[in-house]
Write a structure and sequence with these properties.
Elements (H helix, E strand, L loop, with lengths): L15 H16 L11 E2 L9 E2 L6 E8 L5 E6 H8 L6 E8 L4 E8 L9 E3 L14 E5 L9 E5 L2 E2 L2 H12 L6 H16 L4 E3 H5 L2 H7 L6 H14 L3 E5 L2 E4 L7
Parallel strand pairs: 3-5
Antiparallel strand pairs: 1-2, 2-3, 4-8, 5-6, 6-9, 7-8, 9-10, 11-13, 12-13
Helix pairs in contact: 4-7
Length: 261
């Protein structure tokens, strides 16, 4: 997979943001395949379609592209907060492409796919409204908290300019789909407990180690007064879906991130 942009495509644009948009979108259309079905090409959505940037002509899956100079770090700036929340909580929310590029070398350095069900409102940070002197006074943007997305949902396509094999990407996307859960609240619980487990360094851990996150989970789910039973329920779901093994006596073993048991 060629990782360099074609700078000739942006020659007639003067705005840096426009140039980057043209270069990154053109790169995706020229080089990226559908990580859902493996189809070799993606099509650009019509310009007036606000839901997504690309779609697969074979399976119909939609993708939205987010680009950032350098590594994402903790946050990726996005557009209007309310519009973004409506998009990720709708029945037609897209999967996301996260593209990291080198602005000097004009090339893709890292590229991830984040399946749609990993996007929950908690990982979207509401920014302060623009001040009264701003051109769009009162406008409220948002940030995507990239490192709050569980690693199982940050599926690498390119790392340090090197492509991960297509078969590996397709396998990890299929594995990540086992974490799909109906209902926004249920999805939020599963992602929160999974992220807590990911913070435990050892592959083998105990129920008490997960209980240590009870204050964090109680703060995130204030309407739930039964945090520990809810934790056990999520652990059972993760076991049933192949992301954990139960070793007995309150002891669990992690599966390979994004993969089977």
């Amino acid at each position: 997979m060629e990782c360099h942009f074609d700078p000739s495509l942006a020659k007639r644009y003067h705005s840096r943001s426009q140039c980057i948009r043209i270069l990154t979108e053109s790169w995706v259309q020229a080089h990226m395949y559908c990580p859902r079905c493996g189809h070799a090409e993606l099509n650009h959505c019509p310009n007036n379609q606000a839901v997504a940037d690309f779609y697969c002509p074979q399976c119909g899956n939609e993708y939205e592209l987010k680009s950032k100079s350098g590594l994402p770090g903790h946050k990726i700036a996005d557009g209007a907060y309310e519009a973004f929340i409506q998009r990720i909580t709708s029945d037609r929310n897209p999967d996301f492409f996260i593209l990291s590029y080198d602005p000097d070398a004009l090339c893709v350095t890292h590229f991830w796919i984040v399946p749609k069900h990993f996007f929950v409102p908690r990982i979207v940070e509401k920014r302060k409204p623009l001040g009264t002197n701003a051109k769009r006074a009162g406008w409220v943007g948002c940030n995507i908290l990239f490192d709050e997305i569980p690693v199982q949902g940050r599926i690498t396509v390119i790392q340090n300019g090197m492509e991960v094999s297509r078969d590996t990407v397709l396998h990890q996307v299929r594995a990540a789909d086992r974490l799909y859960t109906e209902g926004l609240q249920a999805r939020g619980w599963l992602m929160d407990v999974l992220q807590c487990i990911n913070q435990i360094q050892a592959d083998i851990f105990t129920l008490d180690q997960v209980y240590a996150f009870e204050p964090v989970l109680a703060e995130r789910h204030r309407s739930n007064q039964h945090i520990r039973p809810k934790i056990r329920q999520q652990l059972q779901l993760l076991r049933d879906r192949g992301f954990l093994s139960f070793l007995g006596s309150g002891v669990y073993k992690k599966a390979i991130p994004g993969g089977g048991g």
